[in-house]
Design brief:
This protein is α/β, with parallel strands linked by helices. It has one domain (26-158): Rossmann fold (3-Layer(aba) Sandwich). Helix content is 21%, strand content 33%. The strands form 2 sheets. A 6-stranded mixed beta sheet has the order 4-3-2-5-6-7, sandwiched between helices. A two-stranded antiparallel sheet has the order 1-8. Helix 1 (20-38) packs across helix 2 (53-60). It is globular, with a radius of gyration of 17 Å. The chain binds guanosine-5'-monophosphate and magnesium ion. Magnesium ion binds at residues 48, 51, 106-107.
Length: 189
């Protein structure tokens, strides 16, 4: 097999927190648990884009339950690497989720504000159940009480990029998750 070309931006990382192989293995384990819990019940997966895009794509291909997919867009006002204020959830759902089992998928659970707001929206639309699956959990940063049923990795309180997560819209295509070298934040921390 041809060797994969390395991405130049990998050199911007100070250190790798979660390797590509570790992500792959963990997603297999998460999917196994989700497959067991839902037992082929119809599922509606709601991904919070853009961050959850890559994680959702890889997770979905391991799920063995009949499912539908939709996305919501959420943004908080960003200043550098800190999100501040109340998240704005754009309700552009095309699917009717009333009476449906929903699996909410996001890249990272940080203050908890985004997922709390999205979950409240889904319950208001009368979803039968809402469970949450996140690849990363930064428990130390929680401001709103929120726990996800499925968590890939607990990580320390560091700003991470890669595998869907961005800094100033860059780095989403890195295959692993890591912390940028300070010079690449260019004083925006
Ligand atoms: P919340 O603070 O509402 O739990 O998280 C909101 C959003 O902030 C996440 O969905 C993610 O887009 C972004 N976020 C939080 N922590 C990080 C991080 O370490 N790296 C990146 N790239 N985004 C983050
Ligand atoms: Mg996000």
């Amino acid at each position: 097999m041809a060797k994969k070309k390395s991405i130049p931006e990998l050199k911007h990382l100070d250190h790798v927190l979660v390797t590509e192989a570790a992500i792959r293995r963990r997603i297999e384990a998460l999917a196994e648990k989700i497959n067991r819990d839902y037992q082929r019940r119809d599922l509606t997966v709601i991904a919070v884009v853009n961050g959850a895009l890559i994680f959702t794509a890889d997770l979905l291909r391991q799920l063995r339950t009949p499912l539908r997919l939709d996305c919501v867009r959420a943004s908080s006002y960003h200043s550098g690497t800190k999100s501040v204020g109340k998240p704005v959830v754009i309700d552009n759902l095309k699917l009717d989720i009333k009476g449906r089992h929903v699996l909410l998928v996001d890249d990272i659970l940080d203050t908890g504000k985004t997922l709390a707001a999205v979950k409240a929206l889904l319950l208001k639309k009368r979803a039968l159940s809402v469970k949450t699956c996140v690849l990363l959990d930064k428990k130390a940063r929680r401001v709103v009480p929120f726990e996800a049923e499925y968590v890939g990795f607990d990580i320390p309180n560091e700003f991470v990029v890669g595998y869907g997560l961005d800094f100033a819209e860059g780095y989403r295509n890195l295959p692993c998750i890591g912390v940028l070298k300070p010079k690449y934040y260019a004083g925006k921390l």
